[in-house]
């Protein structure tokens, strides 16, 4: 799953998409006509139901908040007008004038938007992603105190191949039209535009939030909407984003090790009750200074590696022999096994302090998937499908794809702007900021996230020139990992920071 040191949110779950082939009927054909064979590469068109709506209410800050939940579809069309796909969205709308609207995307590639929806910012939430939780716990929806719905309407969009969104063309065309970073941005930008037009919201203040690879999408969507579609966003929020470009070979470059070390230290500090902004400031300074310098010095300075090993051992609390054998360069998966080796458990790349038992503790390498990824499929799928089909009444026999291994496997990772390798997102972020002097950006990370470490965004954002107000682009960190919003305190802190951003418009 994580063969490269810097890969972010790669999905390697054994999930498959089921495709049915329509039967072709021979009625009315001559008896001698050869039997037609169906195109095995072409999926059956599964008709999706019309949009469905339900009125709901939650209690937020001691008061009722009424809203309308909608599950619906928007078509994706080729240049000739022929439908090529259907994108399913879930929206939450509160009656009232001058309401902003926020479009939400998860990542993967291959993740549905259920994680932001029922985990972070939607009006309801289901428990997942925290230590001690079980996949078989009741998938019960409760009112979400961290929701953004009181200050912005919310539209959660599932990319083709995720959730219930489906392609209407064969496999080869699906890969060509949808499963690559550039085409992904083009059709999803059009979906945002189409939703705005359909709902009469072009004049609303508009925001984009993306998590993980959705965070990679967010600046690119913003720039594309500005320059190609003709719709400007007011703000961008990136949750645990895959923003940082490839930092070079870890055999030579210090950047891959610089990116992950502070998050490993943060996990240690959290276990000790020491995790604060003030405690992490010297860790960040050391990483950008002496740590990077000692890696670059290598054997040219005989004291460099011993000095580095001593300091890293102090900061991380890890076994000194393990750190010395690693040369102070802590490979993520090796660290996650070492961290809890005495208990027979594994730490998660998404949050090292969320653990599960290692079913193969004596193997030389990790033989199971990530503890968090293995545990979140059941609660999120059950809760979302039950909400859509029973609560909202939007009925379909399609399978819900919370995390699609098929999308991730078929994704075009080879291009310059491919997932996790290119600099297109960071470049588009610069361009979007330069184009719109009022655009505001919040990059929001969990301190201990080793999937998309906060230090990558810190290093990336620090290279963006100041263009006008220096506070327009901010990087904030919160206790927790990739899904730090699973912790109520971090969820509420994120909510406050986003409220502040929206209030500035």
Automatic annotation (TrEMBL):
**Disordered as annotated region, ranges:** 27-51
One GO biological process term is: proteolysis
Reply yes or no: does the keyword Hydrolase apply: yes
**Entry keyword set:** Carboxypeptidase, Glycoprotein, Hydrolase, Protease, Signal
According to the UniProt entry, its GO molecular function terms are:
serine-type carboxypeptidase activity
Signal peptide coordinates:
1-26
Mind telling me which PROSITE patterns this protein's record contains?
A: CARBOXYPEPT_SER_SER
- The residue ranges flagged as biased composition, category Basic and acidic residues, are 28-40
Presence of the UniProt keyword Protease in the record? yes
Protein name, entry field: Peptidase S10 serine carboxypeptidase
Q: Which organism is it from?
A: Granulicella tundricola (strain ATCC BAA-1859 / DSM 23138 / MP5ACTX9)
């Amino acid at each position: 799953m994580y063969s490269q040191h810097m890969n972010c949110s790669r999905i390697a779950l054994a999930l498959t998409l089921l495709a049915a082939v329509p039967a072709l009927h021979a009625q009315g054909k001559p008896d001698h006509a050869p039997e037609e064979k169906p195109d095995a590469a072409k999926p059956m068109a599964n008709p999706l139901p019309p949009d469905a709506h339900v009125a709901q209410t939650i209690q937020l800050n001691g008061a009722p908040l009424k809203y309308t939940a909608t599950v619906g579809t928007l078509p994706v069309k080729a240049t000739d007008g022929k439908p090529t796909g259907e994108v399913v969205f879930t929206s939450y709308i509160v009656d009232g004038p001058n309401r902003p609207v926020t479009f939400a995307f998860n990542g993967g590639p291959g993740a549905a938007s259920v994680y932001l929806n029922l985990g972070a910012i939607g009006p309801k939430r289901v428990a997942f992603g925290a230590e001690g939780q079980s996949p078989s716990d009741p998938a019960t929806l409760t009112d979400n105190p961290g929701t953004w719905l009181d200050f912005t309407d919310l539209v959660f969009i599932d990319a083709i191949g995720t959730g219930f969104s489906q392609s209407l063309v064969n496999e080869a065309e699906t890969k060509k039209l949808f499963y690559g970073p550039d085409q992904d941005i083009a059709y999803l930008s059009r979906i945002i535009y189409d939703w705005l037009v359909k709902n009469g919201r072009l004049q609303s203040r508009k925001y984009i939030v993306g998590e993980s690879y959705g965070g990679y999408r967010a600046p690119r969507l913003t720039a594309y909407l500005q320059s190609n579609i003709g719709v400007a966003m007011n703000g961008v929020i990136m949750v645990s984003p895959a923003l940082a470009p490839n930092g070079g070979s870890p055999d030579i470059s210090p950047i891959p090790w610089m990116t992950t070390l502070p998050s490993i230290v943060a996990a240690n500090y959290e276990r000790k009750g020491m995790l604060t902004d003030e405690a992490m400031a010297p860790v960040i300074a050391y990483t950008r200074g002496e740590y990077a310098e000692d890696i670059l010095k290598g054997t040219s300075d005989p004291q460099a590696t011993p000095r580095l090993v001593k300091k890293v051992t102090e900061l991380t609390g890890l076994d000194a022999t393990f750190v010395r054998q690693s040369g102070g360069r802590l490979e993520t998966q090796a660290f996650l096994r070492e961290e809890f080796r005495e208990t027979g458990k594994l730490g998660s790349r998404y949050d090292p302090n969320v653990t599960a038992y290692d079913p193969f503790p004596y193997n030389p390498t990790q033989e199971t998937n990530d503890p968090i990824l293995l545990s979140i499929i059941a609660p999120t799928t059950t809760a979302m499908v039950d909400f859509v089909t029973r609560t909202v009444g939007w009925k379909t026999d399609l399978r819900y794809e919370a995390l699609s291994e098929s999308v991730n496997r078929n994704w075009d990772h080879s291009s310059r702007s491919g997932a996790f390798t290119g600099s297109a997102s960071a470049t588009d972020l610069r361009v979007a900021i330069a184009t719109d002097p009022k655009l505001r950006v919040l990059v929001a990370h969990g301190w201990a996230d080793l999937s998309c470490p906060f230090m990558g965004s810190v290093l990336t954002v620090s290279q963006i020139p100041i263009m006008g107000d220096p506070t327009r682009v901010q990087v904030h960190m919160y206790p927790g990992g990739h899904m730090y919003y699973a912790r109520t305190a971090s969820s509420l802190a994120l909510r406050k920071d986003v409220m502040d951003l929206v209030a500035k418009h």
